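Students often ask why we bother encoding 3D structure as a string. The short answer is that it lets us treat folding as translation between two languages. Here is a chain of 181 residues written in the first language.
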Amino acid sequence: WGILFSHPRDFTPVCTTELGRAAKLAPEFSKRNVKMIALSIDSVQDHLSWSKVRASHCPGKGGAAELSRYSRPVGQISSAQPLTLSPCAQVFVFGPDKKLKLSILYPATTGRNFDEILRVVDSLQLTAYKKVATPVDWKPGASVMVVPTLPDEEAKKLFPKGVFTKGLPSGKKYLRYTPQP
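And here it is in the second language, the structure alphabet:
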């Protein structure tokens, strides 16, 4: 699994706080087997200087120094064509199959919510390996939904803790829940 964080420029206040938070959460991402990469278009000199600012914002073992190992300036694709990023901050989550699983676009004035990014990674990983979906406001450990394509008999076999159907006025029985496997 991998996460790519793009930044409009080095030395932006919001992005500095985000990279500090990402560095502090590096052990949580590591537990989930997720590699983080920060992308910036500024010069190597600017990027290395910004890394020092981020390190002061996030002191301690690992932290910004660990994240800096994965942060590399992109600069130019070729000498003829400079690479430009949106003035927004973007998050891309890729699965082990190297396919995009999630993209989020934030305005440069709004910091990314790293608790939400971790929650989404937990959901993506769970739903990639189990025949479940996560409902609104789901948090790890809470009940999950059985995917609608799974027949009831197979669901009973796959989820020995039980499958519970929520009654609806329509009488349809498609809201099936089970404890998180």
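Translate back mentally: The radius of gyration is 20 Å. Keep this in mind for the problem set.
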